[in-house]
Design brief:
By secondary structure, this protein is α/β, with parallel strands linked by helices. The chain is built from twelve helices and 18 strands. The chain has a six-stranded mixed sheet with strand order 12-13-11-10-15-18. Helix 3 packs across helix 5. The longest helix has 20 residues, at 133-152.
Length: 345
């Protein structure tokens, strides 16, 4: 406040979710007093023993994960959620800001040119994040390798970075996009997931084998997902006749539900309808359309409940070449949040 020379400065508390509590004290307890508009008029600094009026200070705090912030402190904040960038937004940020900045920093204004295809390739195949920090780092890496190439190849004046030659600068692709299946299959359904770096799609596979009615769940599923699978199975048993499933399947068939990429932990309340559809498909032998993805939680009575992260999930579907997404009816009010590019397609 002394440095700013005013009593109403803007004060930024960066990464407030990383505050720790240890033997030196609890910073959250101090922040509780600082950020509470009812108390901070008469805030007293115990280190300097000076009373201070903080009521006119404008505090802005940032966090990646609000679940680690204590509830009493969160109650004193107005939470503004900022979604991850879409691939299209990242492309325009890179083209207008990141590429010119990195090219200038590396002194290569006249010596390098990035095509639109190369920028999109870096976004989809070499970075996976909510923001653009790694994308900027990747552009810088290309600039440095291009500079070295120009120095070793004296006759070349400019390097053009394209989709075809980008692997020469960055190596093999780090992230592979799973496209749609070649044909509709039995027991394989495409689900949608929300992750910390945006949306993603995941295939759910179900196999049925002769047995005595056991269900096996694999693929690092969390407790919520396991409960969804059990709820889906109970719904199918209760409505076997309506669904065209043999009424004694739970005595004669073993069912194995698998979420591929077993090394990645998965959890969340939005896989119920996907698991249910995959199990019904496996038990009836009906194929599931390959160009459809779905999201939603299922109840024991077959009600489909609202889910979150719809914007990111629909973007992931489009990125993987899926043009039809099935969502819960209760999510219809969230349609206006969905990116215009995604809605059009």
């Amino acid at each position: 406040i002394r440095q700013a020379g005013v009593k109403n400065p803007v004060m930024l508390l960066d990464e407030i979710d990383k505050v720790g509590v240890d033997h030196r004290g609890d910073a959250f307890a101090a922040l509780l007093e600082v950020l509470d508009p009812e108390q901070n008029k008469a805030f007293r600094d115990n280190y300097l023993e000076v009373p201070l009026d903080l009521s006119e200070v404008f505090f802005v705090a940032t966090a990646n994960d609000i679940s680690t912030i204590p509830t009493p402190l969160l109650d004193r904040m107005d939470v503004i959620e900022v979604n991850s960038y879409t691939a299209n937004e990242k492309f325009h940020i890179a083209k207008k800001h990141l590429v010119p900045k990195q090219v200038a920093e590396h002194g290569m204004e006249e010596a390098i040119h990035f095509t639109d295809g190369a920028i999109r390739k870096m976004i989809s195949s070499y970075t996976r994040e909510a923001g653009v920090r790694n994308l900027e780092r990747t552009i810088g890496e290309v600039c440095r390798k291009a500079a070295r190439k120009l120095l070793t190849n004296g006759d070349k004046q400019q390097i053009k970075v394209t989709v075809t030659n980008i692997s020469a600068f960055l190596g093999k692709e780090k992230y592979h996009q799973i496209g749609t299946n070649k044909q509709p299959e039995i027991g394989i359904v495409r689900g949608l997931a929300w992750t910390s770096v945006g949306g993603d799609t995941l295939q759910i596979e179900v196999n049925r084998m002769p047995g005595k009615g056991e269900i096996e769940l694999t693929g690092q599923m969390g407790d919520v997902m396991k409960e969804s699978a059990h709820a889906a199975l109970s719904y199918i048993r209760a409505n076997a006749q309506k669904l065209g499933v043999a009424s004694d399947f739970y005595k004669t068939k073993d069912i194995h539900v698998h979420f591929p990429e077993g090394a990645v932990p998965k959890d969340g309340p939005s896989a119920g309808v996907t698991v249910c559809t995959a199990i019904v498909s496996a038990l009836t032998g009906a194929t599931v359309r390959r160009d459809v993805a779905m999201t939603g939680e299922i109840s024991l009575r077959g009600r489909v409940m609202r889910i979150g992260g719809l914007k990111e999930k629909t973007m992931a579907a489009l990125r993987h070449g899926i043009r039809t997404v099935i969502i819960p009816a209760d999510n219809e009010r969230d349609l206006e949040e969905i990116d215009q590019t995604v809605r059009r397609q």
